Amino acid sequence: MKNSDSNSNIVWHEGKITYEDRCKNLEQKGIVVWFTGLSGSGKSTIAVEVERELIKTGKAVYRLDGDNIRHGLNSDLGFSEEDRNENIRRIAEVAALMKDAGLITLASFISPFQEMRKFACKKAGEENFIEVYVKADVETCAQRDPKGLYDKAKQGEIDNFTGISSPYEEPKNPELVIDTTKLSIQESVQKVLAEINDLV
């Protein structure tokens, strides 16, 4: 999160269209829905279904997924704590831009550290941000894991794996907690949609 000395020569160029203008044009409020939780907790699965349901109702929505983003925008980053923070910093900036465009932005990232989730909230604006903690214990996530990542992490083949060799800081006051050890995917989706509809 370092700033270059050359940033002092960069000036923000204001346009003539506001966030409110874009929201009015799309007939919705631009927001960021931030899904956080362990790998295998169900973040991406829920986000995919939420996106589909919102599109059905005519909403303008876009989904940002952790693995997908690492194929492009963040392909240069590893999994050290510094790189993980940079990963979330970039996504938070992108999500905030999409929010400003009036889109409902679904961001699905492990985002294990509280500090970076707070950063994402600040960039989008607290009034435009829904933190969804997709909760499941490590054992359950490992059982669901189709790639065998948890086994590899336990064997030392993957460094800095959240829940095994790297910590996950549980959200303290998320807007929504989805316990996927107790709720079905459809039940989880409905809870997220209700939270979104209350805001947009």
UniProtKB/TrEMBL annotation:
Secreted found in the keyword field: no
Matching SUPFAM superfamilies: P-loop containing nucleoside triphosphate hydrolases (SSF52540)
InterPro entries assigned to the protein according to its UniProt record, in alphabetical order: APS, APS_kinase_dom, P-loop_NTPase
Any one GO molecular-function label of the UniProt entry: ATP binding
Active site: 111
Similarity field: Belongs to the APS kinase family.
Name this polypeptide is given: Adenylyl-sulfate kinase
Pathways per UniProt: Sulfur metabolism; hydrogen sulfide biosynthesis; sulfite from sulfate: step 2/3
Taxon lineage: Bacteria, Bacillati, Bacillota, Clostridia, Halanaerobiales
Protein purpose: Catalyzes the synthesis of activated sulfate.
First-tier enzyme category under EC: transferase
